[in-house]
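Replying to the earlier thread about multi-chain prediction with a worked example.

Input:
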Amino acid sequence: MTSIPMTAMRSDGKPALSGGYRGVLWTLWGLLFALGAIGIYQRFAYGHLPAGYGSYVPWGLWVAIYFHGVGIAGGAFVLGAGGFVLGLPGFARPDVLRTVIVLSVAAILPAFMGVWLDLGHMERAAYIFLRPSFTSMMAFNAWMYNAFMIIAVICWFLSLRARSAWLKPLLCLAILFSILFPSQSGAFFGVVEAKGFWHSALLPMLFLASAITAGAATLLAIQSLIGVDDGERQAAMRFLRTVTLAGLIVYFIFEFAEFSIALWNPNVHAPAIELILWGPYWWVFWVIHLLLGGAIPLALLITRRPGAWTVAALLVAVTFISARLNVLVPGQAVGEIQGLQEAFQHERLTYIYHATAMEYLVGLFLVAVGVAVFYLGERINIWATVRVARSS
Amino acid sequence: MSMDRREFVKAGALVGAGLAATAGLVIRDRMRRDTGDPVGPKTARSLPVLNNIPPRLNDDVLVRMQRDLVKAMAKPVEQRKWVMVIDQRKCVGCHACTIGCVAENKLPPGVVYRPVVTEESGEFPNVHLKFTPRPCMQCEKPPCVPVCPVQATWRRPDGITVVDYDKCIGCRYCLTACPYGARTSDFGEYYTDAAAVGADGKAVSGPHAPWEDQPNHEYAKSWSRKGHRSPMGNARKCHFCLHRLEVGQLPMCVTTCIGRATYFGDQNDPDGLVTELIARNNVHTLLPHKGTQPRVFYIT
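Result:
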């Protein structure tokens, strides 16, 4: 069956979003882009000087955005492409698959850009492909993401054909990669023995769970807000709602396991976890992560109102970056050698990290890039689908 | 499942090939041993240092270490095993080693190779101060090396872990992997960036004082940070002053130590001073539970 793309317009033939909403969204995007451009200018004009990270906390907000982006990309692809391969209702159409691919690319490209801007020598980024060392989880990750992207783009082209014998086999390989790389994101930190909080076998599982949860939530939000009501959309939304719900429960069980074991002994000192729970950024855990990213979405998802699911999905998709930040920063903020930060005093030689205005502005730019890539990708999807329909 | 048998076989083959390729790459890089460093007789140095001064029984430890160094340099690089020994009972916390290192390597703000950690215990008047200079531990099993995604850091045949500034991409993964916090990143700061501005303008002309662009000579090369060139943007670390060793000089922190509390030499020399010192039973290493097997020993 040849049909209109997933996000082009509703079943009644009207655009997915009315003109008023579109105006508001364009204005918001313009604002994001303009503010983000200031951050990008600062990054290129002043290098890393306006950033808040240093040598004892070397990674900050951009790295968290990077891992959140690749998580959404992997999670959304596992579900969307898996649904296509398995022929699940709401996922079996090629145009839906193309939207999933565009979403994955739109999530992963700004993530790459974030980590590229984080490099001390951006001009040498290609070295990771030219002289990689696969003992490093970073090289491993970079290769895996790029292999995934290449296969995903090939799948996009193959999906335009009426029948391709290679589409589903290649999708299976890409699905494998999209399960592996969010897990590797956890392993990226887990293999660092120097950081007690990171060095946990649970971390890859935690990252995979958060990737699938955030990916399902993002797909649910897209289906809900701009999806085509073709009779199967409700089934797809119910499936994604169930996955998001299950993902949230699994994630918080894993997190509870991690924290409760570390804190069970009343005499124990778990500085990284204490920092998460009671440190200066306590509100990131209690308010953003637990309340806005956990309790409220859970309450909304167990209702039978699709409108509530949309709000829940948006909350999860946005606030799950706090899950990344709460692994990334506290893991670095606890040193092994007591007194090191007092030994040689400098603002970049402390275990305290506050993201700066430049980092936040660049973060906005990355979001704007992601939205733009998704929008342009969907325009291309519409054009391609119409072309396929005409030629068949 | 909406896949026919042929598609299923293809998918299995692709997934299998993908997994096999991944495993192959990991195994290949884990097995890799050759660092590309020159080894053999060509790396031996015949240094004329102290040739005309006969050894005496009560030679200063600096002179003895200098002789040990010359002796070690006469061997091929793979037969040397550099170690540092720090006597914490003698260290007075003067930070001369820290400053000597900053001057020798022209370290910019925020980059430090050898801070001295101060621990205070007890209550007045029974107060005890303990000082722990912390150079790079030059670990036998350095955790900073395998995490580098571009092979920009490795352990030399003489046990010193080095960074190739021209390869380093500045990802800072190695900084997180070092349990000793021995690597710092050069974020591009200058001491005179914040120079005072008076009635005649800034105290220095240009964005920073010209002397800050003078090259350092780490790894026996000339490195100027001018124009965001390496080592700016790179991970940086102590390298036991390799460039000084090559010309028969002890590391700067050893020569600047006012209390003769830092010793340096070749552990493979059975008659060397450091070999004598680390055979004692009051010697320990930092964070031994991390399994990194440091080559810096502390006498307490």
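The helical segments of chain B are 5-31, 61-73, 96-105, 173-177, 242-245, 252-256, 273-278.

Feel free to reuse this layout for your own posts.
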